[in-house]
Amino acid sequence: MHWLARQVLRLAVVLLCVTLLTYLIVNILPGDVAIVILGSLATPQDIAGLRADLGLDRPMLVRYFDWLGSALSGDLGRSYRNGEPVAQAIADRLPVSLQLMVMAQIIALGIAVPVALLSVRRPGGFFDRMSASAAFGFLAMPNFMLGIVLIYLFSVTFDLLPATGFTPMSEGLWDNLVSMTLPALTLGLIEWTVLMRVLRSDLLTTLKEDFILLARAKGLPPWRVLLQHALRPSSFTLITVLGLNIGGLIGGAVIVEQIFALPGVGRLLLGGIFNRDLILVQGTVSFIAAGFVLINFLVDMLYAVLDPRVRYARFRS
């Protein structure tokens, strides 16, 4: 219980620091949201009046603590541009971003785990060398460039998948999956590289352990040794990287959603930045930070499920 209380306290401190730094950074950016809304031909009196209506004439820290008090009750404020509640705007677009990230992780794991298992069967062999070369090639490619290449191949050249647009699940599951395939591939084909290299390294270490030698001495088939005895204890670092990759997926989703015209949270954030919609940017970044921190907290909890030694150590503390 003491360990859990310390973790919750640490999460609260991290979120407080993230929201404060975000608010400070957004407010020192050049530009004025009142000018963005009214246009460059607005008079100084109109600009000052709108700033007063929006509360922008108050000290920055006063506005931050007012926002923080409302955010703790679930109210992330209203957009300066259209008056839409920020929480509602995020909720409307969150399913698109979640589907994109989940599909990207499934694609990444679907490639990384089999490739890692095949590579450790003959380390240094032909397949191992080819997979390492492919991983480094994908890792060196920016996601926006990979997205353009995939659009050219699957949309322009072969006309197999749509280049842009989003079809909600309410209009058909198949059409929805088709519209999300290229964006998910764009993220997944980059994410699998790190996952594969991490899992391969841990598998090679685990295969040298005494219990693996014992399993082999009993005459168990190589694939059974890999899947039933080596894969599970080799998954600790993989799970950690999966949690940390959420941040990379969110960052990549901002660009990918813009390229493929997906109405997700990343595109919402980008629009808020372009429009100088400070409340929208603050609420979106805070929501993303909270999700990132909570996911990493849950990943940490999974250690106790995978390894009883971790559970016992936490019980003693």
Defining key terms:
single chain; 317 residues; mainly alpha
Quick take:
By secondary structure, the protein is mostly helical. The chain has helices at about 1-30, 35-40, 45-55, 60-70, 85-120, 125-140, 145-155, 175-205, 210-215, 220-230, 235-260, 265-275, 280-305, 310-315.
Textual characterization of the structure:
With 317 residues, the protein is mainly alpha-helical. The protein is built from 14 helices and no strands. It starts with a helix and ends with a helix.
User: Would you tell me the overall average pLDDT?
Assistant: 84
Gross morphology: globular
Helix content: over 70%
Oligomeric category: single chain
Radius of gyration: 24 Å
Q: Secondary-structure blueprint of this entry?
A:
Elements: H1 2-28, H2 33-38, H3 44-54, H4 60-72, H5 86-121, H6 126-139, H7 143-157, H8 173-206, H9 210-217, H10 222-230, H11 236-259, H12 265-274, H13 278-306, H14 308-316
